# Entry
Amino acid sequence: MQLSIRTRAASIDALSNFLIERGAPGVVLKKTGLDAFFAAPPAGASLRQDVNRFVDAMTRLSPRARKPRLRWQIIKQESWEESWKRFIKPRRVGKTFWVTPPWLEPPKFRRRRVITIEPGMAFGTGTHATTRGCMEFLETASERLPSGKFTALDIGTGSGILAIALAQLGATEVRAIDNDAVALEVARENVRANSAEGTVHLSGASMSAIGRRFDVVVANLTAEVLLELAGALEKKVAPRGFLILSGILHEKAAAVAGRFAARFRIRKRKRSREWVTLLLQRK
# Structure
C-alpha cells in the first residue's frame, strides 16, 4: 500500500516519524508532503484509523493550518530492494563534500571530498537539514582551529557520516559514540567503506565514560536531549574548542542557546526550514 500525504513543510518530519514507527519500511520526503509504503496487511483498516487519528490530532494543534490530504492506493509488486535506490542521489554538502551511495559514482569534482554512505537503519545520509548544517559547521570549525589538526567527539553518530567528515577534514582522532547497536553496525560499515578506521573509533560508551576534552564536539540529537545532556557536553569541549548542536526545532533554539550562554559564544546560527544548527565556541 502507498499512502500519499500532501501537507505543509512543518508537518513533514512529524508525519514521517509516525509512519516509520507505525511500520512503514520506506518513506519518501517531498517538498509538498511525503509518500509512505506499507506491506498490505490484514490490519489495513486499523492502520488507516491510526493514521487518521494522528492527522486529526496534528490538525487540532494547528487549527489555522490546512488539514493534510491523504490518498491510499494499492500498487503493483516490483523489486523494492532495487527500485527504492532511485530516490538516493549524490549530493553536494557545504563547500567540501560529495555524499553518495555506494552504487553510484559521484560527479567528478576534484576540489570536493567524497563520503560514501550506505543508507541503512541509522540516521544520516547528508540529505536532512540537520546533517547538512552540522557538516557545514564542521568545515568552519576545522578552518578556525589554529593548528589545522584537532581531536573530535561525535555524540549519537548514527550512520557515522559526521565522524567520517571530521576524519576527512583533518581530525587526528575521532571518538564516535551511539547507544543504538544497529546504528553502530551501520557506522562501522560506512567507516570501513571510507577508509577511516585509523581515525574514527566507534563505541557504545556513554559520555561519562570518556574522561577527556576535545577540540570539536558535535551532537545532532533533539533540543530536549541536548538540554538534558548540557552539563556533560560542556565538560567535553576543550578551552576555545567548538561545540556544534543540531536537531533543534526553531521554536526551541533560544532555550538551547541560552543554556550554553554562560560558557560559550554563538559563532554562527543556521536555519533551514524548521531546523536550527548552532556553532558555539567555548570562552
Q: What stands out?
A: The longest strand covers residues 237-249. The chain is about 30% helix and 30% strand.
